[in-house]
Each structure stands twice: as C-alpha cells, then as structure tokens.
Design a protein that fits this description.
The chain has one domain: TIM Barrel (Alpha-Beta Barrel), CATH 3.20.20.70. The protein has helices spanning 28-41, 62-75, 92-102, 132-138, 149-162, 173-184, 208-222, 236-245, 269-282, 290-297; strands spanning 4-5, 7-10, 45-48, 50-51, 58-59, 79-82, 106-110, 165-170, 193-198, 226-231, 249-252, 259-261, 264-265, 286-287. A hairpin with a 6-residue loop joins strand 4 and strand 5. The chain is of the alpha/beta class. Helix 1 (28-41) packs parallel to helix 2 (62-75) and helix 6 (173-184) runs parallel beside helix 7 (208-222).
C-alpha cells in the first residue's frame, strides 16, 4: 500500500535484563498492557517473548505465551508475532513449539547461525536485580545462536503445516544466501517478509551503507520482497528512518533499544512507537493498521489462530 509502513513493537525480547531498565516488561500482564498501548500508538505487529514473572529471565513456558497472546487478541487487533529466537540457551524444540501449538499468523524465523553476544554489556552494569543476570551475559562470550540448515528446514515445515508466515530474520549477508537456498529447494515461497537486524555483536553493524548493501543484495538473490529494519541500541531510530526512506517497514521496542533519546530511558514501548510514527508522518508515510498489515503481508487472519 503506497504511503503506508508497518510498525512492529518488539515488547521485551530475550537480550536485556531487568537491571538495565525499570521499564522493561516482565510479567504477562505487563507484556500485554505494553502490547496494547503500542498498538494504540500505531504498531500493527507486536513481537512477543515471555519471561519468568518472578525473576524476569526469558522463558520458553508455553502457558505464559498462551496467556499473553490470548489477552492481546482479546483487547486489540494487533498481529501477534511469536519469537522462535527464544532466549539464550533454549533448545530448537522449545523455540518452535509455540508455533506448533498456537498456529500464529506470523512468527520469526532466524535465517542462520551467529555469534550472538551481549557480554560487552557487563562493562556498563555493576549491579543486578537477580542472580542469573550476570552469568546470562557472561556466557555469551562463548555462545553461538544455532540456526542450521536442518533446523531452518524443520522450522519452515512446522510454519507451513500451521499456516504461519515466517518473518525471516537476517543478521548478516550470509543469511540472505541461506534464504535464497531455501527458496531454491521449495522450503520457503514468495511473497517473502524479511527483517534486517543490524547492530548485534556477531552480526553486521548498523550503518546506511550496510543497509543499502543488504537490501540490494537480497533483491539480486531473491527478487522482490517486503522488508522491515530493526537496529540494536542507539542506531534504532536512524536505521528505521532510512528504512522508511527506502520504502521499508520498521521495528522499534524495548527488545532492541532501552532508550528514547541520548541518555533517556524509554518509559514504554508505546513511547518509541509514537516517535517512529512522528518520523514517518514527517516523511509523508502513515502507519499501517493491523488489518492493512495483514493484507500487505498476505497473512491468514486472526480468526485462524489457535489462541
């Protein structure tokens, strides 16, 4: 739809720990409330992880996932996008199980393995709310986020069986090769939705040149596709602005960036959504409604999910 852009709000993620921000949603109710407010602010998609409500640690608990998804669906029309990235150290089956059970309209699918590192955040934080936080960050110095060709194929098979569209996450150029290979084998079909993820330590860095390269490279290998951009940390809004200028969509939220401006913590996901919507409107672009996003992405509709 000309003049429209899809805004995704990545609500809590599995990267940041509770000590990093008092505004990071942890409990199911906090995640639901944040999702609804983000939708009201202009987000069409809510990207969901869950956490142990007692400790704030990322969790694969499908009971928590179901509670969050069902409550969001009951309160707004946002597209609920389940993460299959999960949290650091979760098994492949733990990561894909929510898609198998709940049959969402949309879910993330990581397109390759990566040295997904957050240990450098230890330089900034000296005090933690929970015992697990420091060890959780430390272990990423020796951690590979595994997404092998076999697991990608298995994920895509589950997605296809459940009628769930994959949001293909590309952290680097090699993952675009992987997507093209999976297309050649018939494991993934057009129309495609790519999420370019910039600025993760272990992946491609955030810069205008890198984003231009990734989009051009993907078009040469894959052809036409719908795309969105997210970036870790302070490059979130510059990279999202560039995506809008290039005809793409955007993802903001506390999963990717805890701040609203330099040195100022974002008080909510909605605050970040409001900011990127203001930027889009300055460029003559309106945020797509959830139902418009469903048409853009060719989704099956919220009446066909299992939650």
């Amino acid at each position: 739809m000309e003049g429209k852009a899809i805004v995704t709000a990545a609500i809590t993620g599995g990267v940041h720990t509770p000590a990093m921000s008092p505004h990071l949603p942890i409990t199911p109710q906090q995640i639901v409330d944040e999702s609804v407010r983000a939708c009201e602010a202009g987000a069409a998609i809510c990207h969901i992880h869950v956490r142990n409500p007692e400790t704030g640690r990322p969790s694969p608990d499908v009971t928590l996932i179901e509670e969050v998804m069902a409550k969001i669906k009951n309160r707004c029309r946002a597209i609920v996008c389940i993460s299959t990235g999960g949290g650091i150290g979760m098994t492949v089956e733990q990561r894909v199980r929510p898609v198998r059970i709940f049959k969402p309209e949309l879910a993330t699918l990581n397109a390759g393995s990566i040295n997904f590192a957050t240990f450098h955040k230890l330089d900034k934080y000296n005090e933690y709310k929970f015992d697990w936080e420091r060890a959780y960050l430390e272990m990423t110095e020796d951690f590979i986020f595994p997404n092998t060709f076999k697991s990608i194929r298995q994920f895509l098979q589950v997605f296809d069986e459940q009628g769930t569209k994959p949001e293909l996450e590309a952290y680097d150029a090699g993952m675009i090769n992987n997507i093209a290979f999976m297309m050649s084998r018939g494991h993934v079909r057009k129309p495609l939705f790519l999420q370019f993820v910039l600025g993760i330590l272990g992946g491609i860095s955030s810069s205008p040149e890198n984003l231009i390269f990734l989009i051009d490279y993907a078009r040469r290998l894959i052809g036409e596709f719908e795309f969105s951009v997210c970036a870790a940390g302070r490059q979130q809004f510059p990279m999202c602005t560039q995506s809008l200028l290039m005809g793409g969509n955007v993802r903001v939220g506390l999963e990717d960036n805890l701040y609203i401006a330099k040195g100022v913590l974002a008080k909510s996901n909605a605050e970040q959504v409001e900011k990127v919507v203001r930027i889009a409107r300055e460029l003559g672009i309106e945020p797509a409604t959830p139902d418009e996003a469903r048409r853009i992405l060719n989704l099956k509709g919220m009446e066909n999910v299992n939650f």
